[in-house]
Every structure is written in structure tokens, then in C-alpha cells.
Amino acid sequence: MKNINSAGIKLLLKIFWSTFKMGLVTFGGGLAMISVIHSEFSEKNELVSSEEISDITAVAQSLPGVIAVNSSVMVAYRIGGNSAAILAGIGAILPSVIVLCLVTVFYNFFVDSPYVRGFLRGVSGAVIALFISTLHKLYRKNLADKYAVIFFIIAAALIFIFPSLNVVFLIIGGAAAGFVLYYLVLKKWNSIND
User: Fold this and answer.
1) Residues 73, 110: Cα–Cα separation, whole Å
2) 3-state secondary structure string across the chain
3) Phi then psi dihedrals of residue 186, to 5 deg
4) Per-residue pLDDT of the chain (194 residues; tens, 9 = 90+)
5) SS3 helix, strand, coil % of the chain, rounded to 5?
6) Counting Cβ atoms within 10 Å, is residue 19 exposed (0-12), middle (13-18) or buried (19+)?
7) Is-contact 34 54, C-beta < 8 A?
8) Where are the domains of the chain?
9) What is the pLDDT of residue 2?
10) 96: burial class by Cβ within 10 Å (0-12, 13-18, 19+)?
11) Would you give the distance in Å from CA 135 to the centre of its chain?
């Protein structure tokens, strides 16, 4: 087993605390958390690049499970390996477990409280702002070339034309189209031009 020095322990604790804070204050699910992950790990602490966050987000969305946990674990793994990934996963889900336990115990109070209903309405408005922030950050990073813009337009059109379309098919279709374009067509095209 590898010996973890004090700098390594500090990094692991920082990762756990960062993901715990994110899980505690980020409402609206995983997509809202992506913006916070980007801010915490890329902009504030400069542990990973914006491009890596963008790539990790794309992979995390295509994996089963909660995108917030998937993204947190993958970013932490990139920073500090297996130990960091495990602590990030625990940090990301622990606040939800604690809050869910409290809500379960005090359910009758929460369900009838006008304060709680008002709180949730206010939070839902803030979540929309987080979604827009995430969309803006992902837009700048992912739609830098014309092919990505074309994929975006096709995916958006399919979502609006077929609202009941299962998102899994959209992700698999986008992955297949991206693979064919970037690794078969453009690779061939680049070898012809060389």
C-alpha cells in the first residue's frame, strides 16, 4: 500500500470537504452541480483544467447513476486516484443522506409548512440560474468547432420534435455519430490531406 504523506492527506480532506459542501448547498440535481464542480476544482483551486471538467462531464452524463456523483468521483480520481474518488463519492452523497433522514423524521412538519414550500419555490428559481450558468460554461468549451454545433442543433431539434424521446437513445446516437465523424471520417480525411 502506498504511503500517503501529509500533503496527500490534506488534498484528500480538501476533496472530501469540497464535495461535501457542494452536495450540501447545490439544489436541482447533477446538472446544477456541474457549474459548482467547475468553479471549485478548476477555477478556485486549479486542480484540473476546464477542458478536463468538460470531458468528464460528457462521460459522466453517459454513465448510469447520478451525474453529480459520477462527475465528483471522476474529477477526484483525476486529481488524486482511488482514495480521492472514494472520498469524493462519500462527500457528494452524505449531505443528501443526512437531509433525507431529517426530512423522514420530520415529514409531517415539512409537508404542511408554508415556510418549506416558500423555501423550495425560491430554490427552484435559483436552480434555473445554475442550469443557465452550466449551459454557458459547457457551450464555451464544447461548441468550439462547427461539428459540435451541428450535433447540438440536431440533438436540440430531436428533443423539441420528439419530447418523449428517451435521452439514452440521444446520448448513444450522439456518441456513435461523434465516433464515426471524429475517428473514422476526419481521421481518414486528415491522412488523405497529409
Assistant:
1) 32
2) CCCCCHHHHHHHHHHHHHHHHHHHHCCCCHHHHHHHHHHHHHHHCCCCCHHHHHHHHHHHHHCCCCHHHHHHHHHHHHHHHHHHHHHHHHHHHHHHHHHHHHHHHCHHHHHHCHHHHHHHHHHHHHHHHHHHHHHHHHHHHHCCCHHHHHHHHHHHHHHHHCCCCCHHHHHHHHHHHHHHHHHHHHHHHHHHHC
3) -70, -35
4) 344 555 588 888 888 998 898 888 776 666 667 777 877 888 787 888 877 887 887 787 777 777 778 888 888 998 888 899 999 999 988 988 888 888 788 777 767 778 877 877 787 777 777 777 767 766 666 666 677 778 888 888 888 898 888 878 888 888 888 888 877 776 655 554 44
5) 85, 0, 15
6) buried
7) no
8) 6-142, 144-194
9) 44
10) middle
11) 11
Q: Which residue has the cell 433522514?
A: 101
Bin 56: left if φ > 0, else alpha if -120 < ψ < 50, else beta.
alpha
d(CA 81, CA 71): 14
Please report where in the chains the cell 486528415 appears, as a residue.
190
Q: For residue 68, which amino acid is it?
A: A
C-alpha grid cell, residue 113: 409548512
Integer-rounded Cα radius of gyration of the chain: 20
| Residue-level pLDDT at 57 | 79
